[in-house]
Inverse folding.
């Protein structure tokens, strides 16, 4: 095989690099392949599920660990789930769990729903419509006014 | 005073992660947050997860255990939220950070295929998926009430997350830069259609506005009932007063709904 054997294309447009490699043409260089994500894709942790067990779980929903959960059961869970349960010793929002565990919010929501179904977490879904409660808003107004 | 606390904040810490103070719970962003894959073992000498955990001596410094104080479980606070929306670089995170008692945290939401095709990712972007970072903070109003502030991008391609965010929100503050108004049109449209009370806050960079408020109101085509205020995102009191305007609108709506 001679060095010329690889040049079945138009040789004047492609720079040949010995022995058989060609430098990419200008257009190909612009569309360099995406390096791709680092590590596994986020929803691997949820086995691909994107819909939460409970769609009412929102960013600000408060979560606490279930007091009756046994350590032995928790110890058998994957580390991500253990991290979530450890964070929930005190009331915490789903958004904070997501930020502290560096999991995507959608992933966190599914995992929290799973842990609730398994009895490890208590998810405090309030009456849901605080926005229509004037007394609640007045309390927020008073609390903000106290900031100085 | 650097952090915002209510006067009746419980003083006695419960120890470890359970310490019920904002500083102890959140600390700095680089604090001892349990990173994924390095979960704190629920108890020492735990055999199931050998990586990075040599069997620890059974020291009394056990990890946070919910069972440690079963009788001392306070009900979680009722969360309320206000959205801070706006384009890139208009000062959303600064606004959140000015009033939040914690350094703004970041959570990520993936723009899934549900958003693609509905929302044009933009001519400049060749990406088909993207990750949206949302910054948020909180203000503890009192023991049973906590206000969350969520910063969200205001461009149309992030609309897939607005439904989630707007559900149950008291109201929204749309932050605009007076020299770049275009990023906020979609979110203003959305809030108008969703009936969410909102206020447009013009972030006065360096104390100057490129346009006066009347011109901005005209350009945004917002109704007379929508407050348009000028504020400084770096100033805690300025942000507080702007949020009070949002809450005033929320209160108007709530009392109107209650009366109806």
């Amino acid at each position: 095989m001679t060095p010329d054997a690889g040049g079945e294309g138009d040789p004047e447009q492609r720079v040949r690099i010995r022995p058989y490699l060609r430098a990419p043409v200008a257009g190909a260089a612009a569309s360099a392949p995406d390096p791709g994500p680092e590590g596994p894709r986020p929803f691997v942790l949820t086995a691909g599920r994107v819909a939460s067990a409970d769609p009412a779980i929102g960013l600000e929903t408060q979560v606490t660990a279930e007091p009756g959960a046994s350590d032995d059961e928790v110890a058998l869970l994957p580390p991500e789930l253990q991290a979530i349960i450890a964070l929930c010793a005190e009331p915490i929002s789903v958004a904070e769990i997501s930020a502290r565990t560096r999991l995507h919010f959608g992933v966190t929501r599914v995992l929290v729903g799973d842990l609730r179904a398994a009895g490890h977490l208590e998810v405090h879904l309030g009456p849901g419509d605080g926005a229509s409660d004037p007394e609640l808003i007045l309390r927020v107004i008073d609390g903000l006014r106290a900031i100085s | 005073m650097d952090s915002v606390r209510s006067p009746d904040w419980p003083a006695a810490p419960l120890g470890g992660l359970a310490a019920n103070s904002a500083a102890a719970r959140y600390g700095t962003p680089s604090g001892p947050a349990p990173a994924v894959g390095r979960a704190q073992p629920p108890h020492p000498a735990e055999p199931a997860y050998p990586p990075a955990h040599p069997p620890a001596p059974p020291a009394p410094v056990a990890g946070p255990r919910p069972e440690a104080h079963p009788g001392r479980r306070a009900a979680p606070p009722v969360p309320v939220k206000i959205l801070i929306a706006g384009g890139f670089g208009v000062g959303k995170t600064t606004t959140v950070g000015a009033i939040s008692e914690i350094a703004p945290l970041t959570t990520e939401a993936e723009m899934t295929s549900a958003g693609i095709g509905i929302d044009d990712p933009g001519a400049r972007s060749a990406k088909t998926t993207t990750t949206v970072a949302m910054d948020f903070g909180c203000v503890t109003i009192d023991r049973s009430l906590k206000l969350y502030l969520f910063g969200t991008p205001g461009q149309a391609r992030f609309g897939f997350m607005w439904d989630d965010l707007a559900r149950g929100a008291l109201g929204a503050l749309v932050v605009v830069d007076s020299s770049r108004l275009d990023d906020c049109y979609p979110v203003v449209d959305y809030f108008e259609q969703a009936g969410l009370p909102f206020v447009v806050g013009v972030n006065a960079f360096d104390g100057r506005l490129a346009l006066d408020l009347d011109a901005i109101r005209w350009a945004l085509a917002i109704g007379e009932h929508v407050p348009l205020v000028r504020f400084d995102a770096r100033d805690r009191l300025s942000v507080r007063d702007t949020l009070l305007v949002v809450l005033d609108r929320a209160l108007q709506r709530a009392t109107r709904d209650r009366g109806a």
Q: What stands out?
A: The two ends of chain A are 82 Å apart (CA to CA). The beta strands of chain A are 16-17, 21-22, 62-65, 92-93, 121-124. Residues 99 and 105 of chain A are 8 Å apart (CA to CA). Residues 105-117 of chain A form the longest helix (13 residues).
